Amino acid sequence: xxxxxxxxxxxxxxxxxxxxxxxxxxxxxxxxxxxxxxxxxxxxxxxxxxxxxxxxxxxxxxxxxxxxxxxxxxxxxxxxxxxxxxxxxxxxxxxxxxxxxxxxxxxxxxxxxxxxxxxxxxxxxxxxxxxxxxxxxxxxxxxxxxxxxxxxxxxxxxxxxxxxxxxxxxxxxxxxxxxxxxxx
Length: 184
What we know:
Elements: H1 5-9, H2 11-25, H3 29-45, H4 47-54, H5 60-68, H6 71-74, H7 78-89, H8 96-110, E1 114-120, H9 126-140, E2 144-150, E3 158-162, E4 165-168, H10 171-183
Parallel strand pairs: 1-2
Antiparallel strand pairs: 1-3, 3-4
Helix pairs in contact: 2-8, 3-8, 5-7
């Protein structure tokens, strides 16, 4: 499979490619994708988990024990669980969020979809997500896999990244532009 230079050039991208190819070759893309979505949600919900993956002070052994303890409660598939162990051993848990994003991009490409990253100030309901997906599909001309994240710092609106294009309709950006214009 051909990978874009952008993903392949980054550390997180190389790990994502390794996980993607292993999952694809073993017919486990759906299971790994589900486990990664669960893991991403756990990262968003748990301050302790975010501290675990970000802390350079936690030893490899302790990080390995901690991530192996996540397997059952989060119902992670064995491939994802082993992968987390490798990340803990290599002291790369800090790149987990980027690895999940890159894996999702690779999975979308594999399914023939375009990947879009969407950042909103508040979670979108199913109707809003369906409308956004349909609009992006009409712009791109193909199926779109939306990777939605929430960042309250943007205040409102949304930011959409489609490949190298970015559409920033956030209130924070509009307020910053207004402040700059008022300075003269």
